[in-house]
Amino acid sequence: MNLYLFQVVNGIGLGMIYFLISVGLSIIFGLLNFVNFAHGAFYLLGAYLSYTAVSITGNYWLALIIAPLCIAFFAWVCERTLIKRVYHLPHMYQILVTLGVALIIQELCISIWGPIGKSISPPDSLKGVIAIGEFYYPQYRLFVIAFAAVVALLVWYLLDKTKFGALVRAGSEDAETVSLLGTHTHRLFSITFALGVGLAGLAGVLAAPIKGIHPFVGPEVLGIAFVVVVIGGMGSFTGALVGGLLVGIVQSVMSTLWPQGASLMIYAAMALVILVRPYGLFGRA
């Protein structure tokens, strides 16, 4: 029984990481109608930057702050110089451009950090386990769940209770009208893109001590993010959260029940949701 409880809690931790990745992808598509195939590569870059920051400073907490901010800034530069030029083009061209960016980032990571995987140790204060009766669980994984939950709450507040969030939601409905009302939409697009990608970089930092880092994880992360978005519904914060938790728990529990089919089952869950609700659990037509 403790084994399955362990896997469920593991799944919640994975699900919160998947949420951080997919909510950024969902926000970007919801506002910009832009398909970002480089999202997984930014996750990868965030993980590697955290590895470098920890290697230089020996301080994981500093890496947790620096790496996502660097990724967000890099995403802002990419959006201002390249991405904004293909907003008006069909999705096929957006996919080609962002896929090219993803390949460039991947090859740069291999050139700088090498093809061999890296690992990061959790901070000393979070090493060890917490005992709750006969149930033992790693402290760092509990921290990931709690920290990601706080970030989720902050993102919800930003999108639901602030003027910026109102503009993002209005822009996802009719960007032209928002522009006519006096909002600098290009600046709004840049900030939104940086925010979404920064959250993916943050997920990479949080996941690095758990899953390690290797230069070919980008496509895998991107695939899971799309599954979460499809299950939860495009452009939905709640959908990204519920979809991430569902995928994380299914993947974690199935790794015990049927290890060979753990990845297969998340796609089966996606197919089931599509059959019942083609626009996702919380999506709109």
Could you characterize what this model shows?
- The longest helix is centred in the first third of the chain and has 31 residues.
- Strands 1-2 form a two-stranded antiparallel ribbon.
- 75% of the residues lie in helices and 3% in strands.
- By secondary structure, it is mainly α.
- Strand 1 and strand 2 form a beta hairpin.
- The chain has one domain: ABC transporter involved in vitamin B12 uptake, BtuC (Orthogonal Bundle).
- It is built from ten helices and two strands.
Salient structural properties:
single chain; 285 residues; mainly alpha; ABC transporter involved in vitamin B12 uptake, BtuC; two-stranded antiparallel ribbon; 10 helices; 75% helix; 3% strand; transmembrane transporter activity; membrane; Amino acid/amide ABC transporter membrane protein 1, HAAT family; transport; BCAA_transport_permease
